[in-house]
Specification:
Transferase(Phosphotransferase), domain 1; single chain; Kinase-like_dom_sf; alpha+beta; 627 residues; Phosphorylase Kinase, domain 1; Trypsin Inhibitor V, Chain A; transferase; transmembrane; four-stranded mixed sheet; kinase
């Protein structure tokens, strides 16, 4: 039996039973006792207690404190309420609202994994309202998934388990093949181990919305590392393809929430909520979201060609000739000079009028307009041989960058873009691919995780951290990389960094629950990291509600969180009722006659001659006609 059950925490909460067990804490059902508690006496609460084996681990205690601080800031109808927090050297616990219901994961499974558009909008709207409140208070959940959301009987949701909120980036990695935050719902930046923000939660909401509308996860595999890689690099099948009945507006909203680049997602949970409200008001609305492209690699070389044209263009034909100011001469004939000045002014005005009136005349306008050709996908030599470049109509400024899509020597970017109308002499910038940039992976074995991550990222590769058990490598140090050290990989590719962690048990021994009540059996199974499964009733001499059999035998080794089905006593089998007599037999009529007060069949016959005498001689019997 758990040593906390029956105990009183700080004299305020009496622990009744264990109702859940997580990676670093157990959750108990408890009752508030005194008047000095945060809730009235008798109120049922949930108490999350840091496990005893972790109480002296400063890192885990810090994480538990982080959770306490994070959720104590939040007060919202769709977030589990926090009543009290106690963190001491002896015991660390959080007192929360006790929610009696099922998880959203259980509800999805019950409905076959797929919901209607109406249900999806109903649930996602509540989740977004909760996240908008959390984000405004500086709390990012980082583990949004159906398992962390409770569903009440009235259809209201409660978000819970902000257990990894505010945890530093270095801790937000894959742990024992399992992501910090379920790998099926984490954002690409979470999978890479990069910094996360509220837009990471929006991505997770988009994955949940995708699952609700289609009944399928966007990325799934038995290998969690493979799922994480897909989150980073792959594009899921379109909702319009796998769930064609989904309204287009909901498809657009889901795709925007799940955009790989955070910049392409909704700016906030509130903005996504507004989009859902617009859909509710007009189901035919179309958003036509615009997306910015993936960022291009950093420039490594920049060369400017045809620089002679820069100075040449300044003196290019077409500029008006510079007029020399006539030298003023002294003269005694002032009236004549005044007349010449007036005439000169009139001539200049007339010339300006003619220039403005005939501005579109090619003879007066030396720089004609041209439509730019498309140079993307061609080589530098082909550009120089093109009519617009070879004739000098446009000038080219060359830049060179690494690019994994275009081969070396081919133009992959043009500014201004093709099809634009420009004046002759316009400078056009063309970026030529240097080809794929390759880097050689260094040997980071036994490096501290943070140092290895920094070194690899400085080379220009993405890093995905996976924690494995290796007794030969210190905890927190690098075991190996995949691809291996010394391999040559393209810049921008993802390298898996395997980091040593402590051994974590993945199996447990099944205890015997025969002879226990159902509730005691449930508690004992939870303590051993198992779950009570189905309950079948059968007659037994044992008291009603007592477990009389279990489908996984006691002492068996099985996986954590396995379900143990039990058979429960329905009490002793009732005795059978006596069968009624057969009307076709003589005994039936004799029994009936005897019951009515009559004698044998012979006396019945003899009495038929005189009904009145029979009546008088049988005072205990009255014929029906004498009633």
């Amino acid at each position: 039996m758990d040593n906390l059950i029956g105990k009183k925490l700080d004299g305020l909460y009496e622990v009744k039973e264990l109702i859940g067990s997580g990676g670093m804490a157990n959750v108990y059902k408890a009752v508030c006792l005194g008047e000095n508690g945060p809730v009235p006496p008798g109120t049922v609460v949930a108490v999350k207690v840091l496990r005893e084996e972790f109480m002296h681990d400063p890192d885990l205690v810090r994480r538990f404190k982080n959770e306490s601080k994070a959720i104590s800031l939040l007060h919202h109808a769709n977030i589990v309420k926090v009543y009290d927090v106690s963190v001491s050297d002896q015991l660390q616990y959080i007192v929360m609202e006790y929610v009696d219901g099922m998880t959203l994961r259980e509800y999805l499974n019950k409905r076959g994994g797929k919901l209607t558009s109406r249900e999806t909008v109903h649930f996602i709207s509540q989740i977004l309202q909760a996240l908008e409140h959390a984000h405004r208070n500086g709390v990012v959940h980082r583990d949004v998934k159906p398992q962390n959301i409770m569903l009440l009987d009235n259809g209201q949701l409660r978000m819970m388990d902000f257990g990894i909120a505010r945890i530093s980036r270095a801790e937000n990695q894959l742990l024992s093949g399992k992501a910090m935050g379920s790998v099926h719902y984490i954002s690409p930046e979470q999978a890479r181990g990069d910094m996360t923000d509220p837009k990471s939660d929006i991505y997770s909401v988009g994955v949940m919305m995708y699952e609700m509308l289609s009944g399928k996860l966007p990325f799934d595999s038995d290998n969690v590392v493979e799922v994480a890689m897909k989150q980073i690099t792959d594009t899921p099948r379109s909702l319009a393809e796998i769930a064609p009945e989904t309204p287009r507006a909901l498809v657009e909203i889901t795709e925007r929430a799940m955009a790989k680049l955070p910049e392409n997602r909704f700016a906030s949970a509130g903005e996504m909520l507004e989009a859902l409200e617009r859909y509710v008001q007009d189901p035919n609305v179309q958003f036509e979201y615009q997306y910015i492209p993936e960022e291009t690699p950093a420039k490594v070389v920049k060369k400017t060609m045809n620089q002679k044209y820069d100075s040449h263009s300044a003196g290019k034909a077409g500029a008006a000739p510079r007029k020399t100011k006539p030298q003023k001469r002294r003269s005694v004939f002032l009236p004549v000079l005044l007349g010449i000045t007036v005439a000169f002014g009139l001539a200049c005005a007339s010339l300006c009028y003619m220039i403005l009136r005939n501005a579109d005349d090619p003879l007066l306008n030396a720089k004609a307009e041209i439509v730019l050709e498309d140079y993307v996908g061609v080589t530098r030599d082909e550009v120089n041989a093109s009519p617009q470049v070879s004739s000098g109509q446009i000038l080219i400024e060359w830049e060179e960058e690494y690019n994994n899509t275009y081969g070396e020597g081919y133009v992959y970017k043009q500014s201004p873009a093709a099809g634009r109308t420009v004046r002759e002499g316009q400078t056009v910038t063309l970026t030529v691919s240097l080809g794929t940039k390759y880097v050689t992976l260094p040997d980071t074995t036994n490096y501290v995780q943070a140092d290895a991550e920094q070194l690899l990222r400085e080379l220009g590769v993405s890093v995905l951290v996976v924690q494995n058990v290796d007794p030969s490598v210190a905890v927190g140090a690098v075991i190996r990389t995949d691809p291996a050290a010394g391999s040559t990989v393209p810049a921008g590719s993802t390298v898996v960094l395997y980091v040593s962690r402590q051994q974590v048990a993945t199996t447990t021994t099944v205890p015997s629950v025969v002879g226990l009540t159902v509730e005691d059996a449930r508690t004992l199974l939870v303590q051993n990291h198992l779950t009570l499964g189905s309950q079948t009733q059968a007659y037994s001499d044992l008291p009603v509600g007592t477990v009389i059999a279990q489908d996984i035998a006691a002492g068996t080794t099985t996986k954590l969180n396995s379900r143990v089905n039990v058979t429960v006593s329905a009490g002793p089998e009732p005795a059978p009722e006596p069968a009624p007599s057969d009307p076709s037999s003589g005994d039936f009529w004799e029994d009936l006659w005897g019951g009515l007060g009559g004698g044998s069949s012979s006396s019945s016959s003899s009495s038929s001659s005189s009904s009145s005498s029979s009546s008088s001689s049988e005072p205990g019997f009255i014929w029906p006609w004498e009633w």
